[in-house]
Specification:
Elements (H helix, E strand, L loop, with lengths): L1 E11 L2 E10 L2 E5 L10 E4 L3 E5 L1 E6 L15 H13 L4 H17 L2 E8 L2 H11 L2 E8 L12 H12 L5 E7 L7 H14 L2 E6 L3 H11 L3 H7 L7 E5 L5 H10 L2 E4 L1 H6 L7 H7 L3 E3 L12 H16 L7 H7 L2 H6 L16 E5 L11 H7 L6 E6 L2 E5 L2 E2 L4 H15 L4
Parallel strand pairs: 1-4, 1-5, 6-7, 7-8, 8-9, 9-10, 10-11, 11-12, 12-13
Antiparallel strand pairs: 1-2, 2-3, 5-14, 14-15, 15-16, 16-17
Helix pairs in contact: 2-3, 2-15, 12-14
C-alpha cells in the first residue's frame, strides 16, 4: 500500500516542520517531497495534526491487564507474592488472549506502535498482537531452575517454540527472558543466556527493582543483582534490563561497559514504593535508557503519554533540577532508545528508509493549543487520546480514533468474564 500524508507538522530528527511524507509498503519512502510517479492508495490530510514516530513501550506484561485496579496499595512483596502470583495460577490461555488483546488496543489507541511483552501463555499473546496489528517483541517469562533440578521446567522450551511458531510474522520478534534473580537460579539464568546466544535473540530481565531484592541477592551471592546477571552472561548489547531502581554507580558503569539497555518504569516504581531509578546518572554515563509502562497491575495503564509526563517531572523534583530529564530526552527514550533496546532496526524515527510505524495526533484540542513546542506538548500537555491515526509496518490500524477490525465490546465482555471467574470483581 502507498500512503501519502500531506501538509503535516512532523517531529523529525533535525527538528519540527511541516512536510509531506510518503509510505511505500512497510517503509517511509520520502520525507518533505513526493517522488515523481508516486501514486497514493490513500491520502491523509495532515492539516492541524502532528506526526510522530510510534511510541515504543520497552517493558510490559500484557496478560496482566485483567489485574488492573485489583492489587493496589500493597507492599512490593505483598503485591507480587500475596496477590498477583495466586491470581496468575487461575488464568487460562484464553484469558491471556483477551487480556493481551485489551492491552494491545489500549496501547494502539494511545499512540504506542511497538511493545515488549514478558508473560505466560505467549502463543495466545502472539495471536492477540497479530489480530490487532501492533508490533510486539515477545518472551515467555522464565522462572525456577533448569529442567531436572527441581523437576520438569518446560518454560525455556516454550520460549524456543514460541519463536519457531511465530517467526514468520513481520511485526513479531522475540527475546529470552529470565524473570529475575530472585525467581531464577544462577544456573537457569546462565542457560537462558546460552540459549539466547545460540538462537541469535536478545535478552530481558528484571533487575534491582526493590530493596528486598537487593538484600536477598547480596546475602545469597555477595553481589548486586546487576553484577550477578553479568556473571551469568546476561548483560550484552542485545539485553534490556527493567527497572534498575537501586543500580549503584558501579552497576551503571558495568551496564555502559556491556552496552546493555535499561527500561525505566517510573509510574510502576512509584506505585509500588520502590523509588526512583537513577536515570540522570545513567544518561550521563552513556547508558541507553528506554521507557516502559510495566503491567496494568502496577501502573495501572498502558498509556505511554502518562509515563512520558511522569518521567520528565519526577526527576526534576527529586533532583531539584529542571533540566534533569528534558522533554526531548524523554521523547527519545520513548522512540529511538526503545527501538535500540528492543533490537528493532529502523524504528523510532521519521526518515527515508525507516519502517513506517507512525502516529498522527489531533492538535485541535484545548490542551494542545497553542502548539508552541510540539515535543514539549507531547510530554507536558498530551493525554494520548489525541491519537487519531496509527500506522504499523505501513498499514493503518487506527483511523479516526477507532481500532480497525476490532470489536472493543467483545474484548470487554471476555475480560469481565475472567474477572468474575478469578474473583477480582468486588
Amino acid at each position: 500500500m502507498n500512503l501519502l500524508i500531506r501538509n503535516i507538522l512532523a517531529v523529525l530528527p533535525d527538528g519540527e516542520r511541516v512536510v509531506d511524507v510518503c509510505v511505500s509498503g512497510e517503509r517511509i519512502s520520502a520525507v518533505d517531497r513526493v517522488p515523481e510517479g508516486f501514486a497514493a492508495d490513500r491520502t491523509i490530510d495532515g492539516s492541524g495534526r502532528l506526526l510522530i514516530p510510534g511510541l515504543i513501550n520497552a517493558h510490559c506484561h500484557a496478560y496482566m491487564t485483567v489485574f488492573r485496579n485489583c492489587a493496589d496499595d500493597l507492599t512490593f512483596n505483598d503485591w507480587l507474592f500475596g496477590r498477583i502470583a495466586p491470581m496468575e495460577d487461575l488464568l487460562t490461555g484464553e484469558d491471556c488472549y483477551w487480556s493481551s488483546k485489551l492491552a494491545c488496543a489500549e496501547m494502539l489507541l494511545t499512540g504506542t506502535t511497538a511493545y515488549y511483552d514478558m508473560g505466560m501463555f505467549m502463543e495466545e499473546a502472539a495471536q492477540a498482537a497479530v489480530d490487532t496489528g501492533i508490533r510486539a517483541v515477545l518472551s515467555r517469562g522464565l522462572s525456577g531452575a533448569p529442567d531436572g533440578v527441581d523437576g520438569p521446567n518446560p518454560r525455556l522450551e516454550q520460549a524456543v517454540r514460541l519463536f519457531e511458531n511465530w517467526k514468520q510474522y513481520p511485526t513479531l520478534s522475540f527475546m529470552i527472558a529470565p524473570h529475575a534473580p530472585y525467581s531464577c537460579t544462577a544456573d537457569y539464568m546462565k542457560q537462558a543466556a546460552d540459549t539466547a546466544r545460540r538462537m541469535g535473540l536478545g535478552l530481558s530481565i528484571h533487575l534491582s527493582e526493590s530493596a528486598s531484592e537487593m538484600a536477598s541477592i547480596r546475602e545469597q551471592y555477595g553481589c548486586t543483582p546487576i553484577e550477578l546477571a553479568d556473571r551469568c552472561g546476561l548483560l550484552t548489547d542485545r539485553t534490556v534490563v527493567a527497572h534498575c531502581v537501586y543500580a549503584t554507580d558501579e552497576d551503571i558503569a558495568l551496564l555502559k561497559q556491556r552496552d546493555t539497555s535499561v527500561a525505566t518504569n517510573p509510574i510502576s516504581n512509584m506505585k509500588l514504593a520502590n523509588g526512583f531509578a537513577p536515570v540522570t546518572k545513567m544518561l550521563k554515563a552513556g547508558v541507553n535508557v528506554a521507557l516502559g509502562t510495566d503491567g496494568s497491575s502496577s501502573n495501572n495503564a498502558l498509556n505511554m503519554f502518562r509515563d512520558l509526563a511522569c518521567l520528565t517531572l519526577i526527576h526534576k523534583a527529586n533532583e531539584h533540577d529542571p533540566l534533569a530529564v528534558t522533554a526531548r530526552e524523554a521523547f527519545l527514550m520513548a522512540t529511538v532508545n526503545g527501538a535500540r533496546a528492543l533490537c528493532l532496526d529502523d524504528l523510532g524515527v521519521i526518515r527515508e528508509g525507516a519502517k513506517a510505524d507512525l502516529v498522527i495526533l489531533d492538535l485541535d484540542r484545548p490542551n494542545m493549543q497553542p502548539v508552541n513546542d510540539p515535543v514539549a506538548s507531547l510530554c507536558y500537555s498530551a493525554t494520548g487520546y489525541e491519537t487519531e491515526t496509527v500506522i504499523v509496518n505501513g498499514v493503518p490500524v487506527v483511523l479516526n480514533g477507532k481500532l480497525s477490525d476490532t470489536d472493543m465490546e467483545e474484548i470487554y465482555a471476555h475480560v469481565r468474564q475472567t474477572c468474575e471467574r478469578i474473583g477480582t470483581v468486588k
